[in-house]
Design brief:
This protein is α/β, with parallel strands linked by helices. It has 5 helices and 15 strands. It has a 4-stranded parallel beta sheet, sandwiched between helices. The protein has a 3-stranded antiparallel beta sheet with strand order 5-9-6. Helix 1 packs parallel to helix 4. The longest helix has 14 residues.
């Protein structure tokens, strides 16, 4: 392997050699990349993480975390942090364009029976929680960098970073978004295509009576 330390055992023990150290590169410091870096670090694997942006700050508005997301965050010890930074509810209501009610759903609490089904929090707040967790788990975060080259070899994956440096890893993970540099290096040019659907979002103060998630359907 690329940089592993090995512990040899006799054939009687059934295993000849066990890798004691893994080298993993994660490209992309968003939700997926930071979460993976945290999960690996908590299991004793400290990953290197590249983020093309030069600072950890992110834009964006609200993030909805349903039960599956909350369950994953609970496994990392981060669910309570996210709940403290957000607003929770069990109710999802549908309305037509004029505000007439169409349906009222009560969602299941699949992450924890004592916690609401949905958490909603600002995207920057989530990024801070995940960044802190990844660093606490031992991840090395490097900003202003991405991949320029990737070669899969018998002894690992050789990469060249955008600053010209080269390294060898056991595994490279692409978590760098819709215009992924990793995807391009592996599969070639695959550009996103506009589907004809757009979305505009804005952050506003929540009225106290708005204690549910809602969807208004137009024509």
């Amino acid at each position: 392997g690329a940089s592993g330390e090995w512990r040899k055992r006799s054939p009687r023990q059934g295993v000849f050699a066990i890798r004691m150290k893994r080298s993993i590169l994660i490209v992309g410091g968003g939700i997926g990349g930071m979460t993976l870096a945290t999960a690996l670090g908590q299991r004793g694997i400290a990953a290197d993480l590249l983020e093309i942006e030069t600072t950890p700050e992110v834009g964006g508005v609200g993030i909805l975390q349903y039960g599956n997301a909350l369950r994953a965050l609970r496994s990392l010890g981060l669910m309570d942090n996210c709940l403290s930074a957000g607003f929770q509810t069990d109710t999802y209501r549908y309305f037509d364009a004029m505000g007439n009610p169409l349906a009222n759903l009560r969602l299941l609490r699949i992450a924890d029976p004592d916690r609401p089904a949905i958490n909603m929090l600002p995207r920057p707040a989530l990024q801070t929680i995940l960044t802190d967790a990844a660093q606490a788990a031992g991840a090395k975060l490097r900003y202003g960098l991405t991949l320029n080259r990737l070669d899969m070899q018998d002894d690992g994956v050789k990469v060249r970073l955008s600053d010209g440096t080269e390294a060898l890893y056991d595994l490279v993970v692409g978590a760098d978004g819709i215009r992924s540099a990793v995807r391009k290096l592996v599969f070639g040019e695959l550009l996103p295509r506009f589907t004809g659907q757009g979305c505009w979002r804005v952050t506003m103060q929540r009225p106290p009576e708005l204690d549910y998630q809602c969807m208004y359907l137009g024509v």
